[in-house]
Amino acid sequence: MQTVDIHNAKVDLAELVEQLPLYGEILITDGDRPVARLSGVEERPSLRDHKPTSLGPPLRRVVRDDDLLDEMLRS
User: How many CB atoms lie within 10 A of CB 19?
Assistant: First the structure.
């Protein structure tokens, strides 16, 4: 991991962003104290490209002779 002083990071931010694939993360310090970490963002697939998959046949109500709920709803 590369370490950069905060004052240099302000001046060279664009260059640091370009170097992220090389270093993975860049630690920004204020003197000897770490104050921030610069890291890349992983690109996620778009939900628009997601194809839904079937989880099986649709649910259906099972009617039984001793269906107490159905009996309560009818009364």
Answer: 15
